Amino acid sequence: MVEMDVLPEGKRRSMTLFADWSRRLRPAFAGSAMAILIASAGAPVFADDPAEKMFELDIVDDRLADSDRPLRVGEGDRVTLIWTTDRTADIHLHGYNVKAAVEPGQATEMSLTANATGRFPITTHGSDGAHLTLQYLEVHPR
After folding, report:
1. Residue 11, exposed/middle/buried by CB under 10 A (0-12, 13-18, 19+)?
2. Contacting residues for 28 by C-beta, under 8 A, at least 6 apart
3. Residues near 141 by beta carbon (within 8 Å), at least 6 away in sequence
4. Residue 69's closest CA among 55, 87, 52?
5. Phi-psi region of 38 (alpha: psi -120 to 50; beta: other; left: phi over 0)
6. What's the alpha-carbon Rg for the chain, to the nearest Å?
7. Distance, C-alpha 4 to centroid of its chain
């Protein structure tokens, strides 16, 4: 407890209550700060200036090779997806409404500026109308 001889009785009581209150809340503030640091540790950090991002993507047997991580870009980046496939595929980047028809033996480009932030599925559209998700494009704010 803090000794307050120089303050009148009414002020001394209010300062003592403040000291008790701040001592009790200190662990909660420390825990909140730690939670924020942990949550932001895995978030990608993007430079202030937009960049050119290019991804080469290969579809084999209706699956994308190396699709264990989403494609991550920053808001405003110019993104180029270069597709190859072993069979004809119609590819659609949802949210941006960018589409491409990819033929075997040909590289096909999809280009866009990543203006909308969020997580957007990239799918193939089958002749039966079914959607198969190949990958996700994550656009992070700057």
Report:
1. exposed
2. none
3. 74, 75, 117
4. 55
5. alpha
6. 27
7. 51
**CA distances to 2, 24, 52 from 15, in Å:** 8, 14, 57
Whole-number Å distance between alpha carbons of 94 and 29? 40
pLDDT tens digits for 69-126? 899 999 999 999 999 999 899 999 999 999 999 999 999 999 999 999 999 999 998 7
What's the predicted TM-score (pTM) here? 0.66
With b meaning 16 or more CB within 10 Å and e meaning fewer, what string describes 86-106? eeebebbbeebebeeebeeee
| 42 class by beta-carbon count within 10 Å (0-12 exposed, 13-18 middle, 19+ buried) | exposed
CA distances from 97 to 18, 50, 51, 141 (A): 56, 21, 21, 20
